[in-house]
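Fold this sequence, please.
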Amino acid sequence: MAPLINGIHVPDSQLAREITELVRDASTELLFNHSSRVYYFGALQGNRQGLKFDPELLYAGAMFHDMGLLRSYSSDTERFEVDGANAARDFLTRHGIDKSDIDLVWTGIALHTTPGVPCHMHPVIALVTAGVEMDVLGLTYAEFAPEERDQVVRAYPRTLKFKEDIIQAFYDGIKHKPETTFGNVKADVLADKDPNFVRGNFCQVIRQSGWPA
């Protein structure tokens, strides 16, 4: 049974149960536990900030956000974020969810690797990214009480070498379509014009995060 952590739990609904079953069956233990932690960390942060959000929609966004890394859900041409967003859209459409709600989930997943944008959008969108940034990058690590972090990780354990494992999972999920990784054009312009510019490095941030492993 999903735990209750500082008022947060997985929604007790048929939709949430089917999401859990689908993602557990289709995904790896690494990604399933990571996605579950993303939900809890996002929801905990949302509560702390007094944001109003639909837990079912946040749960859908969190659980589907990395489905595009799985070969069975990966297209040959779309970014992995879009593949995950499309998988969530198709699932929610089959369950009769309103298009406006589906659009929130789709956007939250599609933007979860685009820092600085989701935080200005609807809480469902913002909190998917917030949960990812906490679990992978540790950006808000110090804002969570140690007992909150411990309870989430106890319920959905991190692997002993999670930082390296998640980097490997990203690589495995995108290596067959490197053209989809074209990204932040601003960094390209700065690198072209400013010899002193140093690009931020996602993998380096992961390895230097507050998490112990």
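Residues 187 and 200 are 9 Å apart (CA to CA). The domain at 14-207 is CATH 1.10.3210 (Hypothetical protein af1432).
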